[in-house]
């Protein structure tokens, strides 16, 4: 396929590119020229969720990850070296990626699938004679498609365009937005950040009532109304629409206020200890998966656990580790420090957040694989932190912000330590120091869930130094490389997108 950019594909051609469509195509007659049933569109939408490794490098860009050359073994493949270009912020991070940066094409392809669903599902034929049921199915699938399209554009605009600023968003270039399903051979130009975010908000506003009024049990790997509301709260936060972010996050918490409670884990001496990992086994490994869809606080999970590409030990033959700076941000009594990370026998920080199997205390996978856990997760903890940050920006919101922080932190600290080390007091903060505390709390809570890079971009854009195979590299404060470069193959076929400044 020569023009693998944006959405310029007919359905059959598109499926050939995506690979995951192959099985679906085998299920329909070869002479079938278009989709016709609700099940056809449901399966097409399911493919658009991209249950494959898509974005393993996003956390490599941040200050949450270190590359330790001393641990590299030349006789190993060292396959995670693929992401050194990203770790060192090459002008184009894909320089070390054999297939280039594939996120742009895959996410736009996914968005194309949602366009097909949105444009055509209203005419789909149902599998039952009950037209009420058929219409309910159509509307639910359409609602999911709107939510997923918003999700894809949210990622794309936060990777390949500047951070949102209400003062300049009307004139700042965003990314191309195309809602069509035609295969016209035309160039796609960027629209403003204001228009991109406006489209994301519109899609979510379309999605939520369709999903609320046409309930279907699809599990947490697909969007529900509550997950769409949570995503909208995130979008409003990024847009600095504080009141709207508060309203949306409160709606989510009113429906589901659950938090992952670590207090009992803090009383377990195997978990809460500075001692390095020894030989944990099925009888001694404590804890359950922090990011499992089975947890009541988890609203949506997407894709697979992509961290095995980076942290997989012998699987990935990698010397990327959680950074010492991240490890040291956790305070005394904070159970997350040891639930998320542990030192190994060499003293290196090892990633543990996804190593606990989700269903039972007696199932532990020694190496991270793609088969369990997730990297992209929407959960209720984010709503509390959105509320804290949004209130911190309001003139009279400091006490409310601290209250939401304390609600979150209380279940993450050992009970005996919370009052002394964990509880925050409003009188100790200025608005700015409170914001910095909230951003640090987000760093601790969401480590390796693809939040940190976006948070760095939209807040302080600090200077960061990383080491690689041949020396170090520095990302300067407010560096233009906080906006990733458009992949070269996309610029080759669609130069009117325009490269990002360097």
Could you describe the 3D structure shown?
- The chain is mainly alpha-helical.
- The protein has helices at 11-18, 22-26, 38-48, 84-87, 103-120, 131-160, 193-213, 225-238, 242-255, 263-266, 308-311, 324-327, 336-340, 380-392, 398-410, 415-422, 431-445, 452-458, 488-493, and strands spanning 65-67, 173-176, 190-192, 298-302, 320-322, 341-343, 349-351, 376-379, 464-468, 471-475.
- It has 2 domains: 1-54 and 102-254, Serine Threonine Protein Phosphatase 5, Tetratricopeptide repeat, CATH 1.25.40; 58-88 and 256-461, Serine Threonine Protein Phosphatase 5, Tetratricopeptide repeat.
- The protein contains 19 helices and 10 strands.
- The protein has a two-stranded antiparallel ribbon. A two-stranded antiparallel sheet has the order 2-3.
- It is globular.
- The relative contact order is 0.14.
- The model is unreliable at 1-33 and 357-366 (pLDDT under 50).
């Amino acid at each position: 396929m020569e023009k693998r950019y944006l959405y310029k594909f007919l359905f059959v051609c598109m499926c050939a590119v995506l690979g995951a469509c192959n099985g679906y195509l085998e299920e329909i007659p070869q002479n079938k020229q278009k989709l016709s049933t609700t099940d056809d569109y449901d399966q097409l939408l399911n493919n658009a969720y991209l249950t494959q490794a898509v974005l393993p490098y996003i956390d490599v860009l941040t200050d949450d990850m270190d590359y330790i050359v001393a641990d590299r073994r030349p006789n190993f493949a060292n396959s995670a070296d693929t992401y050194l270009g990203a770790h060192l912020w090459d002008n184009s991070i894909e320089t070390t990626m054999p297939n280039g940066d594939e996120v742009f094409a895959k996410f736009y392809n996914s968005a194309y699938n949602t366009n097909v669903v949105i444009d055509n599902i209203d005419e789909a034929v149902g599998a039952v004679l009950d037209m009420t049921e058929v219409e309910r199915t159509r509307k639910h699938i359409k609602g999911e498609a709107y939510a997923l399209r918003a999700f894809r554009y949210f990622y794309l605009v936060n990777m390949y365009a500047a951070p949102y600023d209400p003062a300049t968003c009307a004139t700042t270039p965003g990314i191309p937005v195309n809602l069509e399903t035609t295969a016209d051979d035309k160039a796609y130009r960027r629209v403003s950040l204001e228009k991109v975010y406006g489209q994301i908000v519109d899609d979510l506003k379309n999605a939520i009532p369709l999903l609320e009024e046409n309930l279907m049990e699809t599990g947490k790997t697909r969007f529900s109304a509550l997950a769409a509301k949570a995503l909208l709260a995130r979008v409003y936060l990024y847009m600095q629409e504080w009141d709207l972010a508060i309203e949306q996050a409160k709606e989510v918490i009113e429906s589901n206020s659950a938090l992952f409670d670590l207090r009992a884990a803090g009383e377990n001496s195997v978990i809460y200890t500075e001692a390095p990992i020894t030989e944990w086994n099925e009888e001694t490994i404590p804890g359950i998966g922090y990011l499992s869809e089975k947890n009541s606080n988890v609203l949506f999970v997407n894709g697979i656990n992509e961290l095995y590409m980076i942290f997989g030990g012998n699987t990935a033959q990698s010397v990327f580790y959680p950074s010492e700076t991240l490890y040291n941000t956790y305070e005394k009594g904070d159970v997350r420090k040891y639930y998320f990370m542990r030192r190994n026998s060499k003293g290196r920080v090892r990633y543990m957040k996804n190593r606990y199997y989700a269903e039972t205390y007696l199932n532990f996978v020694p190496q991270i694989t793609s088969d369990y856990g997730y990297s992209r997760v929407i959960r209720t903890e984010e709503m509390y932190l959105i509320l804290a940050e949004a209130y911190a920006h309001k003139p009279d919101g400091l006490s409310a912000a601290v209250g939401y922080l304390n609600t979150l932190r209380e279940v993450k600290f050992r009970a005996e330590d919370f009052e002394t080390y964990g509880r925050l007091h409003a009188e100790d903060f200025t608005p700015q120091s409170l914001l910095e505390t909230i951003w640090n709390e987000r760093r601790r809570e969401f480590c390796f869930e693809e939040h940190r890079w976006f948070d760095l971009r939209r807040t302080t854009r600090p200077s960061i130094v990383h080491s690689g195979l041949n020396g170090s590299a520095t990302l300067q404060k407010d560096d233009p490389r906080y906006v990733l470069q458009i992949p070269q193959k996309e610029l080759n076929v669609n130069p009117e997108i325009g490269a990002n400044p360097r």
